Amino acid sequence: MSETRQPVPRAPDDASTARPPHFVSREPWDPYVSETLTAEQERFYMAGQWKLMWWRLRRHKPAVVCGTFLIFMYLTTLISEVIAPYSQDTRHIKHIFAPPQGIHLFHDGKFVGPFTYGYTMERDPDTLQRVYRPDRRQVHPIRFFCSGETYEFWGLIESSFHLVCPARDGSLYLLGTDRLGRDMFSRVAYAARISLTVGLFGISLSFVLGLVIGGIAGYYGGWIDNVIQRAIEIIKSFPHLPLWLALSAALPVTWSPLLVYFGITIILALLDWPGLARAVRSKLLSLREEDFATAAALMGASPKRIIGRHLIPSFMSHLIASATLSIPSMILAETALSFLGLGLRPPITSWGVLLNEATDINVVAVNWWLMFPVVPVILVILSFQFFGDGLRDAADPYH
Q: What residues contact 25, with CB distance under 8 A and at least 6 apart?
C-alpha cells in the first residue's frame, strides 16, 4: 500500500536549535500493514480473561512480592518436620526459658562458619530467675542437610533428615525456648501448618456454600431470595466473637485434636459464607437478564447449567479475589479463639496456641521471645491483604 507523507508546517527557528521536519501520514491506518504489529495486536485481542488478569496482576509489584511470600510460606508447611531442627514436643530441661542464640561466623578473629555459643546458667539471687549468658568457650557449629532427631514425616514415613541441626553435643535455639524447654523456632514451624491450612480449608467450604446459596438466591429471586436474605441478615446480626466463643465452647472436650481442628474449621466457614453469598447474588441479578443467559435458557439449558457454566464463570475472578481477602479473617479468628483457650488445644500447635502460652505479662516482660509467633501472623495477614488488593484490581475489567 502506497503512503503519502506531507510535512507539517513549522515556525522558523534558529539554525542552532533546528530539528528535523516531522511527517504525519494522512492515509487511513491499516493494522495489517506490519506483520509484527498485527501479531502483537492479536496477542492482546485473543487473550482470555484469565490471561488479561495475570498480565494486570504482574504489574502490581506489592501483590507479586506478597504472593511469592505466601507461596513460600505454604510450601514450608509441606516440610515442617524437615525445617524444624527439633520436634515440637522435645524438651530440654537444662534450657528452660533460654533466650535466642545468636549466629556467628568468626571466633577469636578466625572464620569458623555459622555457629552458636553455648550457655552458662545461674540463678538471680533476688528474683530466683534463670539467667543465661553466652559461653565463648563452647563453640557449636551449625550443621546443614544433616541427620538429627527422628520424626514421622506427615505421620507416615520415619526419617531423621533436617535442613539445619545443632552440633553433636550443642544447642540451636534460634528463637529461644519456652517454659518446658521446647524450641520456639521448631514449634512456630510446626504451628504454621495448622494456622495456614485452617484458612484454606475454611474458605473452601465457605466458597462452596456462598456459590450455591448465593447462586440460588440471585437466579430465582422472589420469595426464595427473600428467605435467603433474611437468613443472612440474622446470621450477620450476631456479634462474631461471642458467637465463635459459644460454638467453640460447644465442642465436646472428649474430641480428639483432629476432630477439634475440623470442628473449628467448619465453625469459621459457617460464619463466613454470607458475605460471599451476597456478592454472588448481586452479580447474578445483573447477569441473568443478559443475552447469553437468555439464549442458554431458550436453548433448553437447565438452571443448574446456566448458573454453573455461564453465569458464575463470567465473574469467577472477582470471587477468587474476594475469597483471598477472606482467608486472613479466618486465620485471625482461629488465632483469637486459640489465644482465648477455646480454639485448638494441645497437643495441636498453632500460632494462637503458642500465643496463649504468653498471656502472662510478667513472663512476656522477662521472656520477650515468647511473643515471636505474632510476627508470622502479622506478615501473613498483611501479605494476604496486599495480594487480595492486587487480585481485585487485576479482576476489574475497567481498571
A: 3, 4, 5
Q: Does domain 66-76+191-395 correspond to CATH entry 1.20.1250.20?
A: no
Whole-number Å distance between alpha carbons of 216 and 197: 29
Q: Say if residues 80 and 193 touch (Cβ distance below 8 Å).
A: yes
H helices of 134-256, in order, are 184-220, 222-237, 240-249
Distance (Å) of CA 359 to CA 97, 98, 191, 352, 364 = 15, 18, 18, 11, 8
Average of per-residue pLDDT across 224-238: 87
Cell of 64: 507479586
**Domain range annotation of the chain:** 66-76+191-395, 82-186
Kind and range of the H or E element at 381?
A: helix 374-395
**Single-letter amino acid, residue 229:** Q
Lowest mean pLDDT among 36-45, 53-62, 319-328: 36-45
pLDDT tens for each residue of 308-353:
788 877 777 777 777 787 888 888 888 877 877 777 777 788 888 8
- The 3-class secondary structure across 337-372, one letter per residue, is HHHCCCCCCCCCCCHHHHHHCCCCHHHHHHCHHHHC
